[in-house]
């Protein structure tokens, strides 16, 4: 195993961020272990609030050329995380009324306070964890599935000392093929991904980024390298 090798389970968005590591002799292998497929839909059920669960939810909603009908009651827009909020602004040209931050002390309570008695439509993947739905009354929410994600079957990842994971499905897919080696260190993008990592590696080998962003993952890695 190359001690200077790094694997991250996504295509890196900010190549400039990783240049310093490459210049120091580190080898980066960036590849998502997840594939995506659109799920067609004919109508968008009305709700007081539209909640986008991920960047891909925004992308696949947008690809089907669905427009948000503005009624006399203005629909509010909510996003799961900063990157999803950015995707909403970029692809749909809409302003965000609420951004769910998984790193907050009690984000579910914050969302319920924001939503009050309003109804919400969750725009999501087929196999979404649906964590927020579990905190609401059934009559208060609807769901619109716009895509599904599934594990890649054919992939080859070079043995790497540092494994950076960006979702639980990426974790499970990687370890369905490879065993954890005792010298490997894992970095997770958030609590749910961290939980998945702990199924395959001990606590002493697993770290979590301060925020759900590529720059935060990078900072956590650099800290381990120092």
Characterization of this structure:
The protein is of the alpha/beta class. It has two domains: 103 residues, Rossmann fold (3-Layer(aba) Sandwich), CATH 3.40.50; 115 residues, 3-Layer(aba) Sandwich (Rossmann fold), CATH 3.40.50. The chain has seven helices and eleven strands. About 2% of the residues have low confidence.
Core attributes:
226 residues, alpha/beta, Rossmann fold, 2 domains, six-stranded mixed sheet, five-stranded parallel sheet, 7 helices, 29% helix, 26% strand, elongated
What does the radius of gyration come to?
Answer: 19 Å
CATH class of the largest domain: Alpha Beta
CATH architectural grouping of the largest domain? 3-Layer(aba) Sandwich
SSE order: EHEEEHEHEHEEEHEHEH
What is the topology, as strand order, of the major beta sheet?
3-8-7-4-5-6
- Compute the number of structural domains: 2
Work out the helix count.
7
């Amino acid at each position: 195993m190359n001690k200077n090798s790094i694997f991250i389970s996504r295509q890196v968005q900010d190549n400039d961020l990783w240049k310093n590591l490459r210049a120091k002799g580190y080898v980066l292998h960036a590849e998502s272990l997840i594939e995506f497929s659109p799920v067609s839909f004919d109508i968008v059920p009305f709700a007081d609030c539209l909640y986008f669960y991920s960047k891909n939810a925004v992308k696949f909603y947008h690809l089907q050329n669905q427009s948000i009908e503005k009624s006399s009651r203005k629909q509010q827009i909510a996003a799961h995380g900063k990157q999803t909020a950015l995707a909403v602004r970029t692809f749909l040209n809409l302003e965000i009324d609420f951004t769910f931050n998984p790193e907050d002390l009690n984000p579910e309570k914050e969302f319920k306070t924001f939503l009050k008695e309003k109804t919400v439509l969750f725009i999501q993947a087929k196999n979404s964890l649906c964590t927020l739905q579990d905190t609401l009354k059934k009559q208060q929410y609807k769901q619109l599935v716009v895509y599904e994600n599934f594990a890649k079957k054919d992939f080859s990842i070079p043995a790497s000392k540092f494994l950076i994971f960006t979702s639980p499905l990426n974790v499970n897919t990687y370890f369905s093929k490879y065993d954890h080696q005792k010298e490997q260190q894992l970095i997770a993008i958030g609590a749910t991904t961290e939980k998945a990592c702990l199924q395959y590696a001990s606590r002493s080998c697993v770290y979590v980024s301060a925020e759900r962003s590529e720059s935060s993952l990078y900072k956590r890695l650099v800290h381990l390298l120092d």
